[in-house]
Queue: 3 jobs
Job 1
Amino acid sequence: MKLVEVIPGSKTSGEIACKISGFLDQRLGKGVVPAKDRPNFIANRIGVFGMMATIHEMIAGGWTPTEVDQMTGKAIGHASSATFRTSDLVGLDVTAHVTNNLYPAVLDDEDRDVFVLPELIQTLLDKKLLGDKTKGGFFKKSKDAEGKRVILELDLNTFEYKPQEKTKFPSLDAAKGIEDKAKRVKALVWGDDRVGEFLWKTTSRVSRYAANRIPEIADTIVEIDNAIKWGFGWEVGVFEAWDAIGVTESVERMRKEGQAIPANVEKMLASGATSFYKNEGGNHSFYDLVAGEYKPMPARPGVLILKDIKERTGVIKSNPGASLIDIGDGVACLEFHSKMNSIGGDTVPMMNFAIDEVEKNFTGLVVGNQGGNFSAGANIMMLLLAAQEEEWDDINMMVRALQNAVMRLRYSAKPVVTAPYGLTLGGGCEIAMHGDKVRAAGETYIGLVEVGVGVIPAGCGTKEMTMRAMDAAAKARDADPLAFLKKTFETLGMGKVATSAQEGRAFGFLRDSDAISMNGDRLIQDAKQEVLNLAAAGYVQPVERTDITVLGEPLKRH
């Protein structure tokens, strides 16, 4: 979990709070949110309120846990575990403890009754149906007559398990085609069906509650949104979602329904402000509900947001697969932005353009992005279609084009630093391995997985792993090179994937000299600094190696 809430005491030194926050951020990779010493702080206060409000609404509307999870997960920018799968993961007893702790502690809370445990929850507690820890909660993992894994769902009337049945909701199906999360949330909440009715009631209730907690538990909407995103895995914060559905329109509907509007939101609307966040040319601001005015978003030193840079300064060149961006101080960034950032026909030409442009006009290049994953690899579907049509010359050309572009990264006249994170597989791994240096996020899943689809790594990954094995053998006195190669080809042949950057070093995908950023938010800035460090140290263009030891016939006999 990314979130850490830091609560300074009345006598805590500001210097101490700053040092602790910096350590949590930079060394442990956490998202730090300043909070106040109030019951359950920020994330649990808002998150558990939302969970309990959802449970009450489920009971009132006669919904099933599966139906509620269909509505309250990825569809509205929340964690994929949604409401009841999250409860099973955490443990219903833990959720109950947090809820029972809140009710007597927040006597002045206008919506305090939501923290009264429903009879349904108490029954589950009495029956020890606590979730994964008791092998069953709202859901239970089982196997059918054929031994296949199935998910069973608790019948809330009989408290017996039955096969899980997902309901067909046309509005949810339609929303899957809306990639923009804000637009998807708006479409669902304003939907004229049972899904829209449910989501309106829960979303509007949580929105009002969160606004009323300022400045009780936090001073700004930014702190609440960060806490709920980092602590509960939401992709869209409370106030971001309120902006998405429309503050003016939603408040008008709340008034018609007789709901009490938070006084600070009333004042905001009266001032002429109609959104909690504003973005003007890449410059972001938020509405301070206490001060009654817009303020710049809090600075995050060491964090570069590529989207904001593009909005402020544009791009040098772009195509559907990738863009080249000027990120300042003479450093450019090659950003992939295809689906899953896969390497396709648009990516390779942009790689070549990036090298040409950087060698002429820049100090160096970062290869990185902020799209969820560095790259899931080459577009295998393109390769499959070409193979089916027996277009072998085209396949040869595609492979050679990728090889040549990757090797241009390796032997560029200007320093190149790659910045992998998340999924860095196949061709993505090969690109990452060929920078002068790698600056990887701590949470990087890196590997050459091509054997899983019946091909071998052909974008220079096999070559690079072989070179590294032979270099390691040369450094080890009287070592048998074959032992090093066996380990390498076992890694390749089994399609092993390292589950962290540290493990990536053990597998040979990263070198000991490559660096790791524990906080992925800092990755692009850290990689940029690596480029500047290489340049300042008197970077010399690498010379293509010819000292590669090969084993030839002796290896074939093994």
Job 2
Amino acid sequence: MLTDVRTFLKARHTFPGLRSVARLICTLLVAALVIAADTTPSVPTADAHRYLDDVKALTTPAMEGRGDGSKGLSRAAKLIEERYKSLGLQPAGKNGYFQPFSVITGAELKGKNSLVVHSESGKTALKLDQDFVPFSFSASGVVTGPLVFAGYGTTASEWGYDDYAGIEVKDKVVVVLRYEPPGFAAKSGNNGLTIHSQLVTKAINARNHGAKAVVLLNGKLGDGEEDLLTRFGSVSGPENVGICIVHVKNAVAEEWFKAAGKSLSKVQNEINESTKPASFDFPDTLRVALDVGVESTRATVNNILAYLPGKTDEYVILGAHYDHLGRGNFDSLAPSQIGQIHPGADDNASGTAGVLELARLFAPLKGQLQRGILFMNFAGEELGLLGSAEWVKEPTLPLDKAVAMMNMDMIGRIKDDKVYIGGIGTGSTFQTILHQAEEKSTFQYQNSPGGYSSSDHTSFVTKRIPVLFFFSGLHSDYHKPSDTWEKINADAAARLLDVISNVGFQLASAATKPEFVAVVENPNPHAGTPAGGGGYGPYFGSIPDFGQTENGVRFSDVKPGSPAAKAGFKAGDVLVQFGDKPIKNLYDFTDALRRSKVGDVVQVTVLRDGKPVTASVKLEQRR
């Protein structure tokens, strides 16, 4: 072509009328050469208005707070699916864009559910929901036995306090008080309640002492507080704590105390003033017959997955969870507003809208990038990272082709331009790539190397996939009905999406992929789900599989260099015994670990391929 142009340019001197035509051709030629030279694909900037519109759409009343198992979650899933279809992205689930899986969403009362009190004056049948109510995490079964009062149901060996000292509760029904002795606050060095106040802790402690059932009383009431029963299903706990536990009104129990020649309020005041136990047996003539039937409720929910093909079969993952709390239930941090829609604008409509906006920006680059991009929206995160755990267990694309996972959870409330990025130490190239992306923005970054925390990227770390976690920080509206779209900082979120798209583009285009690096963990600002006893007590170092495991806790991973790793434990092991404590679920493990001390050497037994493996573990201090 160039030879023909040169011939034409020479001819213009012989034929002057061709000069204007020559100029036009030269102009077109230069433009064509520029276009030909600039063939590198690029990603446009994020649109804050589109982004906010998606947050609004995900938080309308029709979405019902996107609770797992709700119609609102299904509507949100349909919205996401339709968006991927409109962008021409390939379905990457098992049923089109969907990957269905089953979750436990709560519990229902089934069967008789009765409580009959036998005393010298005869037999009294208590009324369900009026005099008593079971807890949703109660075991089911029929229990009969004498009553024994065990104070707050607490064994706090760290402070030399034990409500079970000096009494025998084996095969009896234990009566305990809500909360804990006020003196614990001073002993613990803070003004809040300790782990000993939690109902699950009380239930496990009673079970470990041989009790057959637990009766909880409200006891002393605050100013303006009524003696109300817990609404069934409103208090969190495991699927089955392994012992029957019910809530009984003070007025009913007051008659039991009178039969023992005591007063409920006076006994509680005695404990509170002295921070010493005041446990005792009720008269032998006082017995109860308890029949509890609790059945878990399940629902099928869906991860939503869409794929943008690249030139190879490797791919980068851009993900966020789209479920939230529905109408609150036990996860709500506004207990008085349980029953109201918790819209979850920041947690995590903000991250979901981010994935949708990035899908729109990347969609025109189909087949142009070195690697593909898998867009993922997880359900079941609020129930324990269940959606992401399901995908890594049953991946819809080859797991070994995943180059990196980038997770967005709560990116909509950026304040003072502060942004948190976790996991930067898990990929060998992350530092360099992030530095290049961060230089083009004005954010103040707080980066941490570790990849474990209470969000979906943790599931990928357990499979040795490098992760990056983008987070804008906690706030006072977290897990409350007040987490609404009006409080979203859309402009800042869009700027963060530009950083994320830059990083994603580099990962999808780089000649080499990042290698996974195991990192010694640091605390993460988005914490809260128990992870090997996270947050309390000494350090063990396992990462639990958050899917329900009956009769044990399965390790999805073991942190490098941790006490568990040093003892030889590894991913796939199922913990069944911790010292002298049998472990049936994650709550048992958390309770046992929190009762231990830094430096303790504990005999730990796991099942590996169905066979017991026992090793000594020296517990360490958390760092």
Job 3
Amino acid sequence: MNESIFPAEVATDVNSRPQPPVAPRKPVEDRIHGDVRLDDYFWLREKENPEVIQHLEAENAYTKSVLQPTEAFQEQLYQEMLSRIQQTDLSVPYRLRGYLYFTKTEEGKQYPLHFRQRKDENAAEELLLDLNALAEGYSFLGLGVFQVSDDNRLLAYSTDTTGFRQYTLQIKDLQSEDTLPFRAERVTSAVWASDSRTLFYTVEDEVTKRSHRLYRHTLGETAADPLLFEEMDERFRIEIERTRSGAYLILLAASHTTSEVRFLPAGNAAGEFRLIVPREDAHEYYAEHHPRLDALEAGSSASNVFLIRTNSGGRTFRLVTAPVEDPQRANWQELVSNRPNVMLSAVEPFHSQLVMFEREGGLPFLRVIPLPARSKEPLAASYRIAFDEPAYSAAPGSNPEFDQTHFRYSYESFITPRSVFDFDFTTRQSTLRKQQPVLGGYALTAYASERLHALAADGTRVPISLVYRKDTPRDARAPLLLYGYGSYGISVPVNFSSNRLSLLNRGVIYAIAHVRGGGELGKPWHDAARLHNKRNTFTDFIACAEHLIAAGYTNNQKLIIEGGSAGGLLMGAVTNLLPDLFHAVISHVPFVDVLNTMLDPSLPLTVGEYEEWGNPHVPEDYFYMKSYCPYTNLERKAYPAILVKTGLNDSQVMYWEPTKYVAKLRWLKTDANALLFKINMGAGHGGASGRYDYLREIALDYAFLLREIGIHE
């Protein structure tokens, strides 16, 4: 085999067909638990090695060469998607301390502009941040912190210009429009104290990217910012936030399975944080605050309490109150009991109401609890905001003010564009504030959405959400794109995408497999496919694919699958298990080198993720991970057509994981199907940050997908 790396201009054979780059094999031996593994491509981790960059550029050149016949089609797809977007647009303003805050997008500009305006209709708009100006000279820009001080004068904001998700914190004086000299690097969260001159912020370790230190910055102080807290347990990360009431700062330390909360009055910036209750393994709890919860339980006289969402009474959580003066567990009083089939995912307190974000049967719900007006009155009956589509996404919106008469939420589905509603607590009616415009004559009635269930081998019912044009034939010949994730307890939303219309209008069915490992059915759904249950994620996905084929939605020659990050692990695992089941695969920033990454505790995320994947330094965990690790289990056999994408500056799945995976797969695969690798050399985990650049990335994905199923226009 030719061991050289092809130059970036791409080598060709005698028939002028582009030939893929071949990465040299440089075996590195690893021995652990009596097991010996050879990693031929370990050297591709050397980011500063010119040979590595040359190889990545050659991969990009090869992909460009192979897809060159689709360039006109890519442009057509890009223009289609662009034509559906209202490029100059406004967000729905939210109210905060006498101002309306909103964003604008302008035609031709990659990033939004952040504005505010006094509630007086004649007041001038104030430009707070122009992300386009901040992005000048950079190929990437990400906005992190965006916090306005209580006196409305100062804006604390953070930006990332590499895609590595390391943010620089700055402060802008909104009156003078000057940026203050203060800068803090690697900031993960920040909040103001109520004095509007003290800023608390957390930072991450430079190497492991674990958020571990809390600092306090006081305007005008020239001494170094004091370190207030340092989290020493490498499983835990910290975050600083402020309660919705504005009364307290909350310092959260959390691993994947355990959490701990400290608090400080927002008006006592120089004070010390107090602990609510100490951490206990497998106990997660999260705190909010309410200043006037009276007599929620018989005999209670609490009027200044923490609202604590805790899994102490069941994996799907319950809600308790604790007096601020003495919040130890002995003083907790149950407000909402644990319901095994209903996941209590979040709580947003308002002055006269509580809003709970719940998940049941794989769907999200918003439940409202009216609060008593006087002491010793019982709680009124709670109720849910009604949604009537078979599959949808609903979530809290921007609700920064504690004392307001409405609750803002977002709603969308596969066929209903993203919509912003205000729900009036008094009338119990929702008012549509804005629906995402879809230009070009979008007709909702031309499409249909369904909710199905596949049966896993152990009898578990796995939800599937899907959408298609109503005129798409149901004769088992339609192409179908099946998306999956299934990790960290994250739920894949059933969202609207105007871009997706370019697939649906060409007869492609789109589906999501809500496999175990995700959060669609609450924490037990996550538990059922993590650690030594991880293989359930893969077999669930296969069961969903087989169900869609058996039900006549598609066939294995028209079935394309897609996933990213941990969903890329899913793509690699199922492709290794049943390569003949899928016609093509699109894998974004895939976590495919599981064993090598989890064996390296110096890498970002590794130690904290022992609770998700296991610790391979433990023999039982090592051999279980080895049984499914996509990179380790590649074999000499035929694979589907595959497009792999990554970012050179990815901080969550290092670029070398997909790079090594593609190199090894090229060496082993016996088929003539396409294996393409696209590297964004100036971005990270989420791909391009500019909206136009991102559309071009989607156009490339769609062109690859459609070409593979024989659609060229």
